[in-house]
Amino acid sequence: MIMKRLTAMALFFICFVPAVFPVFAAGDSPEYDMDYYSRFRGEKIEINVYNWGEYIADGEDGLMDVNAEFEELTGIKVNYLNYETNEAMYAKLKSGANPYDVIFPSDYMVSRLAQEGMIQEIDFDNIPNMKYIDPALLNPEYDPDQKYSVPYAWSRVAIIYNTQKIKGGVEGWDILWDESLDGQILMFKNSRDAFGVALMALGYDINTENKRELDEAADYLKQQKPLVQAYVMDQVFDKMQNGEAAVAAYYVGDYYLMLEVNEDLAVYVPDSTELFVDTACIPSDAQHKEAAEMYINFLNEPQVAADNAEYIMYSTPNLAAKELLGEDIVEAPYMYPDAEDLANDVAFVNLSEDTNLYLDALWTEILADDQSYNTWVMPAFVAVAIIIIIASNIRRRRKKARNRELYSSTPGRGIR
User: Fold this and answer.
1) What is the pLDDT of residue 401?
2) Where among 323, 338, 353 does a domain terminate?
3) Nearest CA to 320 among 312, 338, 308?
4) How far apart are CA 377 and CA 20, in angstroms?
5) Which residues fall within 8 angstroms of residue 228, CB to CB, at 6 or more apart?
6) What is the DSSP string of 171-230?
7) Which residue of 16, 184, 280, 370 has the lowest C-beta tally within 10 Å?
8) Three-state DSSP class for residue 353
9) Strand partners, 274
10) Which DSSP letter does residue 106 get?
11) Which residues touch 14 (CB under 8 Å, ≥6 apart)?
C-alpha cells in the first residue's frame, strides 16, 4: 500500500539519505557522464515529449532550462508539447495522431496504459539515475514490478481559498458546496479529480466501483454546478491569483506558486485527501526508445531534478535533488509532510473498463446539464485586470526571491 511506502520513505530519508547521497552546493555546475550522454550526438535524433502545462523548468529566475540543457548536452532535439488532463493525454495517444517518446501520466493512468499495451517496458540499465529515486516510491500499486514508469513528482489535493472572501477559514470539502459562495467556486475540469472530491466529501472511497455511490457523487456534483464559476485546470492560477474566485480544489504545490502572486491566499489540506504521483513513461509506439530513456535519466540528474522541483513546487521523489533544495521549500507546510500526516491519504488506482466508461458517461451528463450551470459574467474590472496582466506577460510560474519568506510564514495565513 502506498501509505506504508510513504512511511518507509520518511524513515529512509531521516536515517539514510545523508550517508548515501552527496550534498551538492546550490549553484554548483552539474557534472554529467559524457560517455553516456554523447552516444547519439550527430545522429540528428528528435524526441517528442508530451507533458502537463508548465511542468518543467524553462530557464526562468535563474533555474535551468531543462530541455535546452538536454539538447546542448546530447545533440538530441526535444519537441515539447503540453496537455491539461490525464484523460486528454490518453485520448491523444489512443487516436495515434502523433507518436510520442516520453509522456507523464499520473499513477492510475500508468496502470491503465500498461493494461492496454499503450506504454512499453523501460530498460533501467539505460537509467542509472534510478539510484536517486526514493525506494519507498518504487514498485507501487500502479506499477508493481517497476516495469513501465519512473516517478517524476508527487503532491496532494487541497482546498485553496481567498482569506478576504472567506473570513472564517475552511474546515472541510463542504466549502465547495457552500451556497453563500455562489459564482465564486472553481472545480476540477477532469472527471477523476472532480469525482474524487465529491466522493471524499460524501465519505466514500475515491476508488469505489459501486454504481450507487458513483451516482450519488454525480448528483452531488450536479448540485454544485449552479455555484461553480468555472471548471478549470491551469486556468485556476489566473482566477485565484487575480481574486476572481473565493475557493478552488487544486494541488498543494500549485498553492505556493499562487501565493507568490496573491498573499491573501491560504490552503487547507483535509485529514484524508488524494495523494498522487506523476511519472515518466515511454509509449509503445515511441520512435526513439533509448533516447527517451536518456531524457528520463537526465530528468533525474540531481541538479536537474532540484531545479524542476523548485520550478513546479511539487515534491520531488529524487532524494539527492531534495538535498539541494533550500529549507524554505523543504520545510514549507505540506510540501514534505511527515508519514503520520499522510496516514489517511489515498491514491487513485485504475478502475475497471466498465467503471471508467460509466464514470465518463456520468461526467458528460454533468457537463451537459445546462439548467444547473452558473451564468456568472466576468465583471468589467476583472476583464481589464486580465488584459493588463496578459499585456505585461506575467506568467503563473514566477519565482521571486523576495517572496521566499512566504513559504515558511504561511501557517499564520490560515493554513490548518
Assistant:
1) 30
2) 338
3) 308
4) 56
5) 185, 186, 187, 373, 374
6) -SGGGGG-GGGTT-EEEESSHHHHHHHHHHHHT--TT---HHHHHHHHHHHHHHGGGEEE
7) 370
8) helix
9) 346
10) B
11) none
Q: What angle do CA 133, 137, 140 make, to 5 degrees?
A: 135
Question: Which phi and psi (to 5°) does residue 361 adopt?
Answer: -65, -40
Based on the fold, state whether residues 255 and 383 are members of the same structural domain: yes
Residues 198, 196: Cα–Cα separation, whole Å? 5
Record the cell numbers describing residue 327, joined without a space: 529549507
pLDDT at 20: 41
The answer on 364 and 241 residing in a single domain is yes
- Same domain flag for 126 and 265: no
pLDDT digits (tens, 9 = 90+) for 113-171: 999 999 999 999 999 999 999 998 999 999 999 999 999 999 999 999 999 999 989 99
Q: Residue written as cell 512499453? A: 120
Do 198 and 231 lie in one domain? The reply is yes
> With a cut of 70, which residues of the chain have pLDDT below it?
1-29, 370-416
Same domain, 66 and 193: no
pTM of the model: 0.81
Among the listed residues 166, 188, 326, the one whose alpha carbon sits nearest the alpha carbon of residue 249? 188
Total number of domains constituting the chain: 2
Element (H, E) at 162: strand 150-162
Phi and psi of 350, rounded to 5°? -70, 135
Q: DSSP secondary-structure letter at 62?
A: G
Match 515511441 to its residue by C-alpha cell: 286
Q: What angle do CA 130, 134, 138 make, to 5 degrees?
A: 75
Let me know whether 394 and 321 are in one domain. Answer: no
Per DSSP, the residues of 240-278 read: HHTT--SEEEEEHHHHHHHHHH-TTEEEE--SS-BEEEE
Amino acid in position 344:
N
How far is CA 11 from each of CA 4, 222, 252, 358, rounded to the nearest angstrom? 11, 43, 22, 40
* CATH number for the domain harbouring residue 315: 3.40.190.10
Domain of 291, in residue numbers: 2-154+278-338
Burial class for 116, CB neighbours closer than 10 Å (0-12, 13-18, 19+) = middle
Q: Do 218 and 355 lie in a common domain?
A: yes
Do 264 and 365 reside in the same domain of the chain? yes
Between CA 147 and CA 336 the distance in angstroms is 26
- What pLDDT, on the 0 to 100 scale, is given for residue 28? 53
The residue among 338, 360, 376 that closes a domain is: 338
Residue whose C-alpha cell reads 485586470 in the numeric block: 385
